[in-house]
Amino acid sequence: MAVHFTAPEMGRRMQRLRRAMTERELDGLLLFAQESMYWLTGYDSFGFCFFQCLYVGADGRTALLTRSADLRQAGHTSNIADIRVWADGADADPAGDLKAMLADLGVAGHRLGVEYDSYGLTHANGLRVAAALIGLATLSDASRLAPALRVTKSAEELAFVRQAGSLSDAADRAAIDVLQPGADEGAILAAQHAAIFTAGGDYPANEFIIGSGRDALLCRYKSGRRKLDRDDQITLEFAGTYRHYHAAIMRTHVVGRPRALHLAYHEAACAALAACEAELRPGRTAGDVYAAHARVFHAHGLSAHRLNACGYALGAKFTPSWMDPPMFYADNPWVIGEDQVFFLHMILMDSASETAMCLGRTSVVGPDGAHPLNAPALDLVVKSD
Question: What's the fold here for domain 7-150?
Answer without folding.
Answer: Creatine Amidinohydrolase; Chain A, domain 1 (3.40.350)
